[in-house]
């Protein structure tokens, strides 16, 4: 007999147009901590509007639907970064200068923004950006992190790496009491914000004037790695921050294809992908496995 929470969860996923196969795969995990998270999600959905016993359909308000989409995508975002268990005390990558909290700041910011673009919720300089078909969720990649760490080594920013897009920034670092995560957010907002400041044309084309935004939003990218380094030169203290991506946008080519966000796995272009809440997730089997090893 199915647990009521699982039934509700399936209804929520159905309301987000996740394929029934993917929903079933995601609802059969045995890990206790993840099941608690899923049960909490189901309770929130039930408080809004329970599934019909006959049809297993659920009517969600726009605010509730946004919550569900974000929760679902962020679970997958965390899970898809892993090659094993992702525990707070277990570093994801062998880089002592980064920790999992910092990695999650970078990854979550990127994926939330990409989700907003996919669902047509991201402002342009005038109006809103177009919907994105086949927008991929980014996963964390240790090789890209190591390359980013090499790039930010003092004084910072050696030549670019082949077949890799890079955003790099040098920012003042007043003193040790300054929160590096606050600096991360400020830099990420600056990189992303150039898209709205300059504006994205009707073809969603990449131009050097929106380079930092373009690299962050490029729909074909699936992997991300970032790093930072605090440096000093005389009396000056500064912080270098870099994020690297596994796909490079080209001048005048579209950053994403305008169209409805994915509603089933077959609409995702990379092999072994699933569609989740309007986003494509590469490596579906590994993602589902790792969700239950958080």
UniProtKB/TrEMBL annotation:
Recorded hits in CDD domains, A to Z, give:
CAP_euk
Task: Tell me what this protein is called.
Answer: SCP domain-containing protein
The record's section on InterPro entries has: CAP_dom, CAP_sf
Write the lineage as a comma-separated list. Eukaryota, Metazoa, Ecdysozoa, Nematoda, Chromadorea
SMART domains in alphabetical order: SCP (SM00198)
- What region holds the SCP domain? 101-249
């Amino acid at each position: 007999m199915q647990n009521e929470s699982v039934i509700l969860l399936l209804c929520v996923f159905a309301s987000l147009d996740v394929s029934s196969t993917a929903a079933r795969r995601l609802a059969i995990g045995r890990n206790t901590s993840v099941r608690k998270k899923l049960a909490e999600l189901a309770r929130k959905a039930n408080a809004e509007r329970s599934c019909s016993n006959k049809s297993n359909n659920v009517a969600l308000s726009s605010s509730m639907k946004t919550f569900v989409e974000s929760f679902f995508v962020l679970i997958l975002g965390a899970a898809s970064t892993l090659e094993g268990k992702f525990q707070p005390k277990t570093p994801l990558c062998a880089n002592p200068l980064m920790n999992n909290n910092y990695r999650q700041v970078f990854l979550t910011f990127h994926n939330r923004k990409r989700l907003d673009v996919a669902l047509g919720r991201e402002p342009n300089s005038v109006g809103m950006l177009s919907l994105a078909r086949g927008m991929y969720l980014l996963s964390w990649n240790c090789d890209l992190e190591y390359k980013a760490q090499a790039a930010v080594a003092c004084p910072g920013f050696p030549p670019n790496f082949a077949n890799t897009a890079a955003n790099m920034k040098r920012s003042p670092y007043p003193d040790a009491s300054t929160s590096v995560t606050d600096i991360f957010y400020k830099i990420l907002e600056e990189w992303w914000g150039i898209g709205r400041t300059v504006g994205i044309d009707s073809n969603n084309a990449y131009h050097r004037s929106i380079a930092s935004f373009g690299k962050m939003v490029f729909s074909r990218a699936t992997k991300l790695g970032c790093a930072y380094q605090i440096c000093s030169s005389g009396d000056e203290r500064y912080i270098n921050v870099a994020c690297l991506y596994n796909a490079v946008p080209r001048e005048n080519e579209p950053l994403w294809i305008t169209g409805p966000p994915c509603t089933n796995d077959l609409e995702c272009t990379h092999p072994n992908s699933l569609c989740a809440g309007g986003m494509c997730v590469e490596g579906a089997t590994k993602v589902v496995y790792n969700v239950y090893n958080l």
